[in-house]
Amino acid sequence: MAIVKNFLGRDMDVPEDRLYHAASHYWFRATSASGSGASGDAGASDGAAATAAATAAATAAAATTATTATTATTAGDSGAAGGAAPIRATGLTEFDVGTTEPGVALTGGLVDLEVLAEAGAAIVVSEEVAFATTRKAIKYFMSPVGGMVTAANPAATADAANESPYSTWLFRMTLAPEAAATLVDAAVYAAKLGASEHATDAAAAAATAAKAGKASPTCRSIYSGIKE
Fold it and tell me: Are residues 85 and 140 in the same domain?
């Protein structure tokens, strides 16, 4: 389990059984052959092995959508998210997609959540896939990758995402060929978060003050600059 220290004043775990889109705070977990990935048990897989499998699955799945030859080449490389060992591609791999704990924290907490992605729909980068009201504002969740939606999760609620972000998938999809190159493993995602402005004492103080409703002008200025 990777850990981000002092992110908005909290230490946050980053499960190693999935891949991440760092800029948008989404996680992508390859579903098993039986489809049990929907269960959302973030601790079910050994971290290193699961990361390797997810990385290779993302690369192989994206390549399979292009050509069979490309699948063989790309799956053998699998360097997009940390040089993980490849696995054998057996058709199009599906990925459960959700938002990370840091991503939820940056919103201030979700109040209402509606998944807009629908099974059978082709989505492109920056397309709206969910909508939420938060404790700070309203938020449109934009897809960081393109692909095909294969299922939406009717159990994805604001409370579920707040309490168990890594157990709450929003929708399931197959990836477009270029998607694998945009995803990183848990260690890289955690490092990016740890180096961000949100993992500072000033951000922690601002977040604590805002929650208490006692933010000073300086704290309000810092906290208002936190991007969702």
Answer: yes
